[in-house]
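Team,

Forwarding the record for the chain on the shared tracking sheet. I've put the sequence and predicted structure together so nobody has to dig through attachments.
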Amino acid sequence: MNRNGNTYTFIYASVMVIIVAAILSFTAITLKPLQDRNVEVEKKQNILAAINIETSAEEAEDLYAETITDSYTLNSKGEKTDGDAFIIDLKKQQAKPIEERQLPIFEADLGDKGTKYVIPLRGSGLWGPIWGYVSLNNDFNTIYGAIFDHQGETPGLGAEITTDAFQEVFKGKTIFNEDGEFVSLIVAKAGQNAPEQHKVDAISGGTITSKGLQDMLYNDLSAYLEFFNQKK
């Protein structure tokens, strides 16, 4: 066959594409269990971080098993449903009417500090999705801990939601006012007046991300109101 001809070039290119595609497919299939495992471990680390337990990937599974004593899903009436809280896809659930959603929750036993309830969150920032976990004390009002993350927020601006300094101020804030009304938390801009017990400062220069985080907290926590009221 003429190696300078079009037929040879076409066959050679086709064979190379098939070989490369086969190698990539094999690699993806081979690595998927490891990738899934890493995602699972990271999720356990994040749930633990929401109750103020920092842990390495190596220790996360044991600590999770010791600390998270129960996990389940709820409907909008606060009733338990058949579902695995750990594998719930929040994006898919949020696309459904509230009456059809499965709401995941995790219970953590912290000994003398009591039981904490961890709730997953998902919302929208400036450039993409944001997500996180918030834990509540057993009064179902006071925030015990919080952790947030993002897909593509701007470093130094919206991406600041991942910093300890930002997340730390959520601790001790309350989501119900003195009259028992759900108010969630206000991520307040400079100069914006809001009750101190429900207020955290917005990120300077990250207004849209801050507003997205505020909406995420309100929308996701409000879905659990029936559960909160039943447990109080």
